[in-house]
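Sat 14:20. Reprocessing the chain from the morning session after the first attempt stalled halfway. Input below, unchanged.
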Amino acid sequence: MKNLVLIIMLAFSVSACGQTQENHLQTTQKEQKVEVSNKQKVAELLKSIETSAHEPFAYINPEKYIQHNQAVADGLVGFGAVMQQLPEGSAKANTVRVWEDGDYVVAHTDYNFFGPKIGIDIFRFENGLIVEHWDNLQEKVTETASGRSQIDGPVEITDIDQTEANKALIKNFVDDILMGANPDKITDYISTEKYHQHNPGVKDGLAGLGEAIAALTEAGMPMVYEKNHIILGEGNFVLSVSEGIFMKEKVAFYDIFRIENGLIVEHWDTIEKILPDAAAKNANGKFNF
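Finished this time. Tokens:
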């Protein structure tokens, strides 16, 4: 880890040399190289946090890497500086789910990154290279209200032909239910027969969700969704990124939903406090999609 910045620079030196020879080797490369998907690039890059492999850093555009994690400075230099701060051999990254929507790739990862965390990362690609990164991290817990972990459950992407319909379902769910436009329509969105919950403080089922919401409201700390920033989905998995108030603090809500037959049947999330601009290590903002 301590030599990671140097490794990154060497990786890009190799990449740059390869680019100068591209015109001469293009035909041979096309014949020999197996195309790597953007999803695979993200999975390899995240795993390199654990393994210190330098090859995946060639998937990042060396001239343009916009960072939205507020604790990390902009660009590759900022990313490398954080990696150097990690205790040697401490980092772990097990990406459980990954899907793509246009130029965006979403990854759901079980981390040990300055302590055990669950993370949802978003990467944006241009011309096959990563140019922008967002994430939302939450501390990992050992006990949950539902008995499910914060990240277990189905991982297979299905129903690709339903991608746009499922994204529209979640957009309307956010508007009607999470933002309160039509709360009585909740059963139009969430299955009454099966609703598996991975938020550590909420039990399974609609009853569990209602119980948690009522408890927060009674305590004078309602969960408030104020603005939705983006919806990203592939098949039966859809991510919603929003901002609002939780426990009387300004937070980012990253909600992952699994959909079956037009209804939500499973939910994972991460909730992270939004830092004041003055405390952020970059000026890109938490959102700005």
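Residues 160-278 form a domain with the Nuclear Transport Factor 2; Chain: A, fold (CATH 3.10.450.50).
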